[in-house]
Design brief:
The chain has four helices and eight strands, in the order ββαααββββββα. The chain is an alpha+beta fold. Strands 1, 2, 3, 4, 5, 6, 7 and 8 form an eight-stranded antiparallel beta sheet that branches.
Length: 150
Amino acid sequence: MTTFESSIRQIPFPQQNVYDKLSDLNNLQKLKERYAMMKDSMPEEARKQAEKIQDLEFDQDSLSVNVPPVGSIKLRVVNREEPKCIKFETEQSPIPFNFWIQILPVTSTTCKMKLTIKAELNIFIKQMVKKPLQEGIEKIADVLQMIQYN
């Protein structure tokens, strides 16, 4: 099993707020709408990265996205441990993996978050996907860190 972890991110909102927002994937609709309004004011590199994501669809427990050249990925929530962890598993992906979001309190008004991906990778695949997966998990953490969780 190969593990990829994001850096630990400080979130200026209470643990419960962050958990509540991220545990219901329907909340992604608000983020999608916000991105549509803000994309023209984003730095060019950030806009290019965000535009690589296509066909984002979701409901309360799952999300699917097409990420060229990787392809279609569908994740489903398989476990929620309120208010500290949300675990996902792939239903469709070129590389099956598990993904989870850990949220721990720092104070009553702040928390910290870490993302983890675990995948069964043979040595050849591991060398090919190691850098993109590590960069990808950091970019996801960047986005999750910027959300307003109030």
